[in-house]
Amino acid sequence: MFPESEYERVYTGSLINIQFLQGLLEERGIQCITRDDMKSGMMAGFGGGIPHHIQLFVKKTDVDEAIPIIEKSLS
């Protein structure tokens, strides 16, 4: 069994949108991490993931603050 992560996925989309949102969130002091399964698979020498399907994660304690910022920014 895997330990529970302290991060939660808040958005999935293109690299451009991820970078934009990451900048906005980090300006407000919300730490972000990204996960790109396609890029990771290619670097490891095998395919995997969906192109332009990058995931943005924030700490679970920041989710309630991050979601409205993301929704407002993408509307």
Helix content bin: 40-55%
CATH class: Alpha Beta
Describe the largest sheet: 3 strands, antiparallel
Question: In what order do the strands lie side by side in the largest sheet?
Answer: 1-3-2
Domain DUF2007: 10-71
Organism: Aquimarina brevivitae
Pfam family, one: DUF2007
InterPro entries: DUF2007 (IPR018551), N-reg_PII-like_a/b (IPR011322)
What does this structure look like?
InterPro entries: DUF2007, N-reg_PII-like_a/b. This is Putative signal transducing protein. Residues 10-71 form the DUF2007 domain. With 75 residues, the chain is α+β, with helices and mostly antiparallel strands. It has a single domain (7-74), classed as 2-Layer Sandwich (Alpha-Beta Plaits). Helix content is 44%, strand content 23%. It has helices at residues 15-27, 37-44, 63-74, and strands at 7-13, 32-35, 54-59. It has a three-stranded antiparallel β-sheet. The longest helix has 13 residues, at 15-27. It is globular. It starts with 6 loop residues before the first strand and ends with a helix.
Identify the notable features of this structure and list them briefly.
75 residues, alpha+beta, Alpha-Beta Plaits, three-stranded antiparallel beta sheet, 3 helices, globular
